[in-house]
Amino acid sequence: MYDTNIMIDFLRGKQEAEEIIGKSVDGKGIGLSAVSCYELLVGATKSEEEAVGSLFSRINVYSLDLKSARAAWQLYGEFRAKGSQLSIADMFILATAKANDESFVTQDEDFRGTYEKAIIIGKRR
């Protein structure tokens, strides 16, 4: 499963993101959480809307279900105990990957050490 930041770069034709997506980490193709889909829709310019819609028809979308909500609640407790936090959106995105036992590929350093299947590529905060 990919984080929103990689998909934004992919849609904008950035070579690094295209290479990351091209190497599909687990052989299952591109997967996004429903929350990432929302973020892409909200952040898309008028000229990007068609590309975003086309992308959605070719990927696996993971729903935010009860299992994901419980994983987010558990993550929230872990972060709170450490005195740190993630945004609600990031918490739900990570929890969806965790609840579905998927690898999670991101460029966001905030996810380092949060999940054993998180793969941090590059550096972005």
Number of continuous helical runs: 6
End-to-end separation in angstroms reads: 19 Å
Largest sheet: 2 strands, parallel
What is the annotated CATH architecture? 3-Layer(aba) Sandwich
Rounded radius of gyration (Å): 14 Å
Task: Please explain how this structure is put together.
The radius of gyration is 14 Å and the shape is globular. The chain starts with a helix and ends with a strand. The chain has a single domain (4-124), classed as 5'-nuclease (Rossmann fold). The chain is built from 6 helices and 4 strands, in the order ααβααβααββ. The mean pLDDT is 89. The strands form 2 sheets. The protein has a two-stranded parallel ribbon with strand order 1-2. It has a two-stranded parallel ribbon with strand order 3-4. The protein has helices spanning 4-11, 15-22, 34-43, 49-56, 66-82, 88-99, and strands spanning 31-33, 60-62, 104-108, 118-124. It has 125 residues and is an alpha/beta fold. The longest helix is centred in the middle third of the chain and has 17 residues, at 66-82.
